[in-house]
Amino acid sequence: MARPLRMESEDGVYHVLNRGNYRAAIFRTEKAKTAFLKCLGEACGRTGWRVHAWCVMSNHYHLAVSTPRANLVEGMRWLQGTFSVRFNRLRNEQGHLFQGRYKSLIVDPGEGLGPLCHYIHLNPVRARLCQPAELPAHRWTSVGWLLEPKQRPAWFDPQPALAHAGGLPDTRAGHRQYLAYLAWLSEDEPARKKQRFAEMSRGWVIGGGEFTREIMRENRELIGQGRRLAAEMQEACEAVWREELAVLLKKLRRKPEELAPAGKSADWKLAIAAALKARTTVTNRWLATTLHMGNLHEVSRKVCAWTRQPDAALQRKLQ
User: Fold this and answer.
1) SS3 152
2) Residue 236 domain-assigned?
3) Closest of 173, 118, 125 to residue 142, by C-alpha
4) Same domain, 19 and 128
5) How far apart are alpha carbons 113 and 13 in whole angstroms?
6) Total domain count, the chain
7) Does residue 232 lie in a domain region?
8) 285-298 pLDDT, tens digit each
């Protein structure tokens, strides 16, 4: 069976979720959960994503993500691929970590995003891991970040949750009201039905009827264009990488024609490769070919080694 087409758009909003392979408890330790959040933050830095709610359970995760650029597929490839490599490397294991490709539901920013945030925040309550009043102390949802602004990374935005819960202000009083709202919602089944909690992880769209019809119209127009769209998305990604490469070369006063004759492990090439990997979702294969650095596995090894012991002068020039 052919894989379903991933619909992407600028300013798109998605509910993204996935489970461990064979429902394995890949997040059973706090270190694994912390490592996943670290990868998520790096992915947001590379893609410009905004995360509005998240939850990491023992064998799966949920994200409410908005994408200012049409790069959900690119970012998820990096996020899951990078976390899987790091997870397996630390445990000296091999094989698939996640249960196939992630699932992504398209979300109506108006009617669907706020309820989705509440649904994600109440995940530990539904799993009977804690009571609503205990959510602030439960480390593995974004409720704690919502309640404590000083803990928030730049890529976390709780406004949709606060707005949907009654236009609550992002203040201490508003945070207390939001926690009370979650407690009420966890007990009020009709309210959860009205917000379509049962549909949050099913199907392919979260939102009102008109939003769904519009997405369906767009989807019909895309039928049969999967390969072309995939090629166009890849071209768009590579255009971003080339543009960033040009900026970095200029900072080092280097020219593109110097890449081929320079050694595969030249310090300045490693510095550029490390900077590209830190700022974008560039692939090792693209770096290997474009920077003339050997095979993709060599790129990964060399850049990791350089990142552990960077040339401080080169690093400063590329900032």
Assistant:
1) coil
2) no
3) 118
4) yes
5) 8
6) 2
7) no
8) 888 999 998 887 88
